[in-house]
Amino acid sequence: MAYEQTEAIVVRKVDFSETSVIVTFLTPDRGRMACMARGARRKSSPLNTALDTFNRPGLTYAYRDSRAVQNLIEVSLLDGYGILKRNLLRGACANVIVEAASRAAFEHQPVPELYAALVRGLNRLTEPDTAPQAGAAETLFDLLEASGIAPSAGTRESGMFLGRFSAADRERLQRALARLNDRGEGIDPGDAPVLLEFLYAYFTHHLEAPLKSYLFLKNVARDG
User: Fold this and answer.
1) Helix-strand-coil percent breakdown of the chain, rounded to 5?
2) How far apart are CA 177 and CA 180, in angstroms?
3) Closest Cα partner for 91 from 216, 223, 186, 175?
4) How does residue 215 score in pLDDT terms, banded at 50, 70 and 90?
5) CA 76/CA 46 separation, integer angstroms
């Protein structure tokens, strides 16, 4: 058993006992990794706030290959992304990209490009000038690119998914994908909802993992 250190994004947290929780992290070197945080449910524990979803903490943990859940030793908060927890739409967008990154990652396998894309996306969503849905769509594309399966404008594969959209929406999608493929300017915020719908279908098909948080985002965006 070895002690290791890394930074991470908190993906989810579930109660394990009266005092402890199991936290799933996305890390650059260990991919998706679950850790036992003993005492985290005590009101006096600093882990209460450090292990909130979306947080980016620094971790020290005891790692053993044969163990599915590692032991968390120490946590220090690097970024709490407070605006994502105060703004419902931004938080819903953050939920989508965090879930997508988690589902695209492998357990206990290095995913540095995927992790970096997620951190960039969370940072993007905290910027006041970023349209939340556009930031989420651009980040979903970046996550697919980091996974080696990003869609390209004009390909037969992309055309399979474009067929379910109207002619006007197909035009918007082709324009948005061309911008993303060319690494030019960010997408037009007006194209973001249809691009998110496209990327959701594309992601679900390739990774066989529907994003439950996307349905919540659609409801928030519609009601907002």
Assistant:
1) 50, 20, 30
2) 5
3) 216
4) very high
5) 9
Structure pTM? 0.94
Beta strands in the chain (DSSP E): 2-7, 9-15, 21-27, 31-37, 56-63, 69-79
Q: Distance (Å, rounded) from C-alpha 44 to C-alpha 122?
A: 28
CA terminus-to-terminus distance, the chain:
49
Q: In what order do the strands lie in the sheet with 2-7?
A: 2-7, 56-63, 69-79, 31-37, 21-27, 9-15
Q: What DSSP character marks residue 188?
A: P
Position 39 pLDDT exceeds 70 = yes
Predicted local distance difference test score (pLDDT) of residue 208 = 86
- Closest C-alpha to 36, from 68, 77, 70, 75: 70
β partners of residue 108: none
Please state the φ and ψ torsions of residue 129, each to the nearest 5 degrees: -80, -10
Q: Which residue has the tokens 């869609």?
A: 151
Whether residue 10 has pLDDT greater than 80: yes
Mean of pLDDT values over 5-10? 97
SS3 category, 174? helix
Q: pLDDT tens digits for 87-113?
A: 999 999 999 999 999 999 999 999 999
Report the amino acid identity of residue 182.
D
Sequence-separated (6 or more) residues with CB below 8 Å from residue 180: 138, 141, 150, 187
